[in-house]
Design brief:
This protein has a three-stranded antiparallel β-sheet with strand order 1-3-2. The protein is elongated and about 45 Å long. The protein has two helices and three strands, in the order βαββα. The chain has a single domain, classed as Alpha-D-phosphohexomutase, C-terminal domain (TATA-Binding Protein). It is α+β, with helices and mostly antiparallel strands. It starts with 9 loop residues before the first strand and ends with a helix.
């Protein structure tokens, strides 16, 4: 049995590749304020790397869903400007 006081139980890492480093930076800047406290993210070239740490699978899925929704909107807006 897992002790509930041990801290995060679920860790999810993502790598999202974009057409260019410039696009990745713009998308990342668009969503980074919404993510404070919920996940860590960084831009590495044309890739956004994100790490979600949560106490439960339900919480991790909720954070992942929010993050992907925000990323989708930001990507659509940024790609229209190209």
């Amino acid at each position: 049995m897992v002790d509930q006081n041990e801290g995060p139980q679920v860790i999810c890492t993502l790598e999202l590749r974009f057409r260019s480093e410039s696009e990745a930076i713009k998308v990342h800047k668009s969503v980074e304020l919404d993510n404070e406290g919920y996940l860590e993210s960084e831009v590495c070239g044309d890739v956004i790397r994100a790490k979600i740490t949560a106490e439960s699978l339900k919480s991790a899925l909720h954070t992942l869903d929010d993050f992907m929704s925000c990323m989708s909107v930001a990507e659509k807006i940024v790609s229209r400007k190209h």
